[in-house]
Design brief:
The complex is a heterodimer. By secondary structure, chain A is of the alpha+beta class. Chain A has 12 helices and 14 strands. Chain A folds into 2 domains: 164 residues, 2-Layer Sandwich (Uridine Diphospho-n-acetylenolpyruvylglucosamine Reductase, domain 3), CATH 3.30.465; 117 residues, Enolase-like, domain 1. In chain A, α4 packs antiparallel against α7. Classes of the chains: A alpha+beta, B alpha+beta. Chain B: InterPro entries: 2Fe-2S-bd, 2Fe-2S-bd_dom_sf, 2Fe-2S_ferredoxin-like_sf, 2Fe-2S_ferredoxin-type, 2Fe2S_fd_BS, Beta-grasp_dom_sf, Diverse_Oxidoreductases.
Chain lengths: 301, 171
Amino acid sequence: MEFLRPASWEEALAAKAEHPSAVPIAGGTDVMVEINFDHRRPTHLMDLNRVRELHEWEVGDETVRLGASVPYSKIIDELSAELPGLALASHTVGSPQIRNRGSVGGNLGAASPAGDSHPALLAAGAEVEAESVRGTRFIPVEDFYTGVKRNALAEDELIKSIHIKKADGPQQFSKVGTRNAMVIAVCAFGIALHPETRTVRAGIGSAAPTPLRARAAEDFLGAALEDGGFWDNGRTIPPAVAREFAELCSGACNPIDDVRGSAAYRRRAVGVMARRTLGWTWESYRATGNGRTTEGGAQCA
Amino acid sequence: MRVTFTVNGRRHEADDVWEGESLLYVLRERMGLPGSKNACEQGECGSCTVRLDGEPVCACLVAAGQAEGREVVTVEGLAEYAKERDGSEQTGDLAPVQQAFIDAGAVQCGFCTPGLLVAADELIERNPQPSDADIREALSGNLCRCTGYEKIMDAVRLAAARADDSAQEVV
């Protein structure tokens, strides 16, 4: 094995072009597990820790440009206003030690269907900036996941940053596991209300071969909210609408039975999380005065 | 390959390091610092917790080459690290958090203790008066298979209270 230590992004791209089988390593929270357990013996290991811009982020007008190696702990501490869903998801990653090292770039590189950041990225709306010596591509995150632990990167490409839409409304994230810390998701759910476009986006994790958007559920809810004038009148979402949204989210799943949970359980749990997180975000939307009425009663999860 | 980095304030060098080797392996097997424990090798248990440029990390998940030129603090250097940080004239060989673990009876088999000490010390450094929820969160990546968590909580509360007392004495 050879250990590559590029000092700059340009050097990293050149090294990846020269050694397409090189495995990039940033926080190491996935890659080192595979090496420690002898599941992987790459010809080259490429340390990205010296590439400074990968650890930087920039808050723009519409989006946050998040360097691929920015650790989860920084997202939680610094970006929870702009990226509330991703910050919530980040908080459920591993433990403090893991959150100090792991990053969204790593989550995307590994492309595990159970990666915690995926539902939040899908719900917020994001593009992956992939670069090689040949040039730069912006890949919508929903097109980035191509299979179980497979992604859209070409072999000479590296993830430079993730461009994530800044929140224009409440966002939530929910995850099922056996305890609060150190848990791989049995299944996970992210939701983002987008009052500016009067749309809702929903991302599902660990309930299909890839993370995915619940598009039928999004379309149904968007139409129901529009038809009922809910964005303007801020009324409580009728239980029948929330229920239908939940069922459509369950229906979007294509899960398997495995050691962490059964397919039937995952489908059911995703529906429950969809209903609850919709309730939380909608209450939050009403509470911030975006909706006009103050009709009483908290939405029941 | 050769790797060079600072451990507990001293420059250490190791030769013939395999490129896929972890920082934990280098510390334990090549630098004679077996305080950081090797258990799960997948970041689940926290027994190998060290500070890397100040941040608590699992040493089993850091490639040795990634530590090149950086600062590592292990449990072996915790007392010295705490002494310099706190500017205290504490006597004895133990960091306050280590003494608190002894006094609270927070050590059973002792395997998880080094990782917990490093994590707990960092918590009190960052948050001198942690709530119980803060302590649980900070230690959520460290498993104790003797399940001695209540005494560990007591120990961290004790260490924080003592730090608070001595801070007031200085005032």
